[in-house]
Amino acid sequence: MNSSDLNIAIVGATGAAGGTALKLLLERGHPSDKITLMASSRSAGRKIPYGDDQIVIAEAASDTFHGVDVALFAAGGLVSRRLAPRAVEQGVFVIDKGSIFRMDPSIPLVVPEVNADDIEWHPGIVSTPNCTSTPFVMVLDALRKLSAIKAVTVATYQSVTGSGSAGQQELIQQSGNVLEGTNTDSSVYPHQIAFNILPHVDDFLPDGYTKEEQKMLNESRKILHDESLAISATCVRVPVEISHSESLQIEFESNVTVNHAKRVLSEYDGVLVVDDPSQNQYPMPIMAAGGDDVLVGRIRKDTAHENGIALWLSCDNLRKGAALNALQIMDEALRRDALNPASQRTSK
After folding, report:
1. Residue 179 CB partners (closer than 8 Å, separation 6+)
2. Number of separate domains in the chain
3. Coil, strand or helix: which one is 139?
4. In Å, what is the CA distance from 16 to each residue of 102, 248, 348?
5. Which of 61, 201, 286, 297 would staple 282 via disulfide (CB 3.0–4.6 Å)?
6. Which residues are catalytic?
7. Splitting the chain (348 residues) into consecutive groups of 10 residues, what average pLDDT does each group show?
8. Closest C-alpha to 96, from 302, 248, 263, 322
């Protein structure tokens, strides 16, 4: 079976991640008659352009998965909790973008370049990480081949599409208001995002970190299979439409040279080194947007740690950070003949 033979459903098709998944399927030439789009009852009946065709949105419900092989869930945790198990019962392989299943020990959390083998034991659902965790673990996985990693300090610079389409519209509206000299209203964020940055992504926890920062710690440990990895994150929302960027300071057990770091990163699938300061070449959100690679640059010795490397990355949060990673999981499961739950495969 080829991926073009699969009947694929996108749950949350009207959102930013769901819309990007549909765009990627179009880029692949996936047949329109093998795509089912689902959303809330408010969007049911609406037509979404798909190449020369149009696909009618169905209401996401437990009885709308008949004939579906793979379902990409990008509609939020409540929808996934309610409908994903029902889809699995109907023989659907579920790939969930939300956070609801990520730390469930019975469900693999996968970035295919890092831990594709974990797909083998899925129970019908595979979870995908936060769009900040995905490029983060890819870079760490590449570099830990040189030396064990002791600790990482990371600051993120996250685009507004990490909050979905509503965050993007709020940035655009506020930017216009500021330039016109009129008042701005904030509904998605607690403060104005236009021409501003917010050191605040997701809710604050009692220890002063945010849920987003805690996700980077927990998800990275699970994906990398390293519960001892020390990570301190500061997650920041910036007035950029697409692409998350991150500044990493990585402390290793032994010395790692800049040249060796560049070599292993350049050899890693899905990573592109963009690092020529003399020509002002380094990763930027505008450069990463619309692409599938994690762009890495500003690779240098960390002067705060004897065995440290500092670097900068940018990655399209809607593509590799979300929709592309989900489709790559589908491809990997298909290649491994692992679309069915592990219990069904081992019982044959």
Report:
1. none
2. 2
3. helix
4. 20, 27, 39
5. 297
6. 131, 244
7. 93 94 97 96 94 96 94 93 96 96 97 98 97 98 98 98 95 97 96 98 98 98 97 98 98 98 98 97 98 98 96 97 97 97 78
8. 322
